[in-house]
Structure formats: structure tokens, C-alpha cells
Design goal:
It is a single chain. The chain is α/β, with parallel strands linked by helices and about 290 residues long. It has a domain of about 200 residues: 3-Layer(aba) Sandwich (Rossmann fold), CATH 3.40.50. It contains 16 helices and five strands. Strands 2-3-1-4-5 form a five-stranded parallel beta sheet, sandwiched between helices. α9 crosses α10.
């Protein structure tokens, strides 16, 4: 390792369909990091009404959380004292720690889209954490939502909307949160464009590992081999994660969206898209008033 104690845990967040799953798989294949499937633990603790916190503190089995942590781990957790189960840090230390222990790894991480809003809580609980915010071209995000309308699962795939303005508003709100928290915690956060990751995964992963104090491992790029054994259980939008990182899908939105939809996105999000490089910078004279 580059440092005596790397920055940890690693939190991967951002808007859905921005590459958070790919990042989880890459870092979960690092010999020192265990990152389970999406858990939403910060939503669990910080979004639940007060009375539910003390009356429903046991994690349901089965549920996405018991799938991510494992039913045996959740069953043991549910048997812990109420004071432990109502303590966010104690609960997360236990649950994620069990996953890391089962994999024989010293550190753990979390991948949950939209955990950006809990950045303050993340650093309050884990001052040495590292947060990667994933950003993706909003045209690609909208194209994915449109492509998967027929595969939407009731109650879970809220990010899939037939209303383009809803998708635009959600992307903008998440982007603004990301910019806000990155400015607040510049040394412990990273804004990572999905397109940069796909274009040069080795360089990007090496950069993040160095910032965290971890050594880069070639194992990270072999993440897809295990996924190939379980391809029949993958959701439609996760099928690509059973393949090596590739750039084939970066421009899919050009055929998935019509010209009016593309124009609507670019007009509604012109400033953040120029700022993030998804649109060319406007000429300087465009900002000079007569």
C-alpha cells in the first residue's frame, strides 16, 4: 500500500445510470476492498421517520439489504441489541465489516446512487472516508431511461421516467449537489465522469487508488469474469457489466433520442453541460454584452 492507512471506507454515488455499478464491480475486485450490492443504508437511517426508526429497526428478510449483505449476516444483525441497531455507525461497521471479513479483505465500501445528499453524514461518521461522485452525459442518462421504460420495476426503478423534464430535473439536482459537496470536501471527494472511466479505466482507477492511498491492482479490470457466471440473474440495464469495460455504448443516445429530445436536454442543461464538458464552450464574445 502507498500509505500506512488508506482513506476508507470508499463511497460510490451519483445519479442512477452514471456508472456506479461498474465502479462498484471494479473496486470490489480490488484485493483490499469489499463493496456489496446497493444497500441504501444512509436512506435507511436518515430518511426514515423517527417512530419507524424505533419500531422497524430490524432489516426485512428477504430485501435488497439482505441480498447485499447476505441473509445470515442480516439475521445476526437483527439479533443485536436495539441500541446497536439504532446506531448508524455501529450498524454499518457491523454489516459492512461482516462482508469484508467473509471476503478476507481489510476495508469495505458502499455503492448507492443518490447517497450524495448524505455527504455530511458520511464524513461525520467516517472522517477518513473517500467519496467518488459519478457523472454521466445527461443525454445518455435520458436515453437509458427511455430504453428501459418497459423493464421498469414498480417501486424501485424511480429513475426510469417517461417524462423527459423529470429526468432533466433529477440530473440537474444531483449534479448541483455533487458540485456543492466536492467544493466542501475537495481532498476527500472525486468527481468522475463515466466517459473518462470507460475511455481509460487503468489510468482513472490508478489515479483514484493513489488518492485513496491504495496500490492499483490489475484484478480490478477482471471484474466481469465472475459476472459472466451469473448473467441470467442480471437486470436488463446491467447486462453490459458482464463484459470488459468498453466504449461501444457511449454514443447510444444519438439513436435512442430524437432531435427534439436532444435539443430539450441541451437547452435545459446548457450551463452544467458546458461546465462538465458535454457541450463545447461558448465563444467568449457570447458573454460580452453590447
Amino acid at each position: 500500500m502507498l500509505g500506512s492507512t488508506p482513506k476508507h471506507p470508499l463511497f460510490i454515488t451519483g445519479h442512477p445510470r452514471s456508472g456506479t455499478t461498474l465502479m462498484r464491480l471494479l473496486f470490489n475486485n480490488h484485493p483490499s476492498l469489499a463493496i456489496p450490492d446497493e444497500t441504501g443504508m444512509f436512506h435507511w437511517f436518515y430518511k426514515r421517520p423517527w417512530y419507524k426508526k424505533f419500531t422497524r429497526s430490524r432489516i426485512p428478510i428477504p430485501s435488497p439489504k439482505s441480498h447485499a449483505f447476505g441473509q445470515a449476516v442480516v439475521a445476526r444483525y437483527n439479533a443485536l441489541p436495539l441500541t446497536t441497531r439504532n446506531n448508524p455507525k455501529a450498524s454499518m461497521d457491523y454489516l459492512y465489516g461482516q462482508v469484508a471479513q467473509e471476503q478476507g479483505k481489510p476495508f469495505w465500501g458502499d455503492k448507492t446512487p443518490l447517497h450524495t445528499q448524505f455527504t455530511d453524514q458520511i464524513f461525520a461518521l467516517y472522517p477518513q472516508a473517500y467519496v467518488v461522485y459519478m457523472v454521466r452525459d445527461p443525454r445518455a442518462v435520458a436515453g437509458s431511461a427511455k430504453r428501459n421504460l418497459d423493464h421498469k420495476r414498480k417501486g424501485t426503478d424511480f429513475w426510469i421516467s417517461a417524462d423527459l423534464q423529470v429526468t432533466i430535473a433529477r440530473w440537474k439536482a444531483e449534479y448541483e449537489r455533487i458540485r456543492h459537496y466536492h467544493a466542501q470536501y475537495p481532498l476527500s471527494t472525486e468527481i468522475l465522469k463515466y466517459e473518462d472511466l470507460v475511455a481509460n479505466p487503468r489510468a482513472v482507477l490508478g489515479h483514484i487508488c493513489r488518492r485513496m492511498g491504495l496500490e492499483f491492482s490489475n484484478d480490478m479490470l477482471e471484474y466481469y469474469k465472475e459476472r459472466q457466471q451469473d448473467v441470467n440473474n442480471l437486470t436488463t440495464w446491467h447486462l453490459e457489466t458482464a463484459k470488459p469495460v468498453n466504449q461501444d455504448n457511449l454514443e447510444k443516445w444519438r439513436t435512442e433520442l430524437d432531435s427534439a429530445e436532444i435539443a430539450e436536454i441541451e437547452q435545459s442543461l446548457e450551463n452544467p453541460m458546458r461546465e462538465s464538458g458535454y457541450l463545447p464552450l461558448a465563444p467568449m464574445d457570447a458573454y460580452i454584452k453590447p
